[in-house]
Amino acid sequence: MAAAGWLRRAAAAAAPRLPSGLPLIPPPPPAPLAETQSLVVPGLGAAVGPAMELMAVPKKKVSKYKKGLRNGPKALKPVPVIVRCRCCGRVKLPHFYCCSGERGNPSESSS
Fold first, then answer.
1. Coil, strand, or helix at residue 1?
2. FRET partner for 82 with CA separation of 20 to 30 A, picked from 2, 18, 47, 72?
3. Which helix (H) or strand (E) element contains residue 33?
4. What would the 3-class secondary structure string for 36-67 be?
5. d(CA 41, CA 34)
6. CA-CA distances (angstroms) from residue 45 to 13, 54, 74?
7. pLDDT above 60: residue 110
8. What H or E segment, with its residue span, contains residue 92?
9. Mind listing the pLDDT tens digit for each residue in 16-51?
10. In angstroms, rounded to a whole number, what is the distance separating the alpha carbons of residues 15 and 24?
11. Could you tell me if 65 and 74 are in contact, meaning their C-beta atoms sit under 8 angstroms apart?
12. Are 35 and 50 in contact (CB under 8 A)?
């Protein structure tokens, strides 16, 4: 019994009190959204209307291993680029120095 009285007093203290003599007026109901109106959501920054597009969201994180298996064939493949020197005919990589431009064996020094 004592607990019920305490509960009633706490509920009465928490309830908002209106000044006496003022009638309680309910707020007007919100107007329904027409098809031309749209609702602006602050987090999205765009208007969200009846035709809101929903995107697919993955259920779990894809591990690095699975992502590597999927993207492995998409990697760049090394292209073997081998050219012959114009002077001596040796095989070399492009933009690498081979000889000084002399014809014949570059190890021989004629002058």
1. coil
2. 72
3. none
4. CCCEECCCCCCEECCCCCCCCCCCCCCCHHHH
5. 17
6. 42, 15, 35
7. no
8. strand 91-92
9. 666 666 667 777 888 776 655 566 666 655 555 556
10. 14
11. no
12. yes
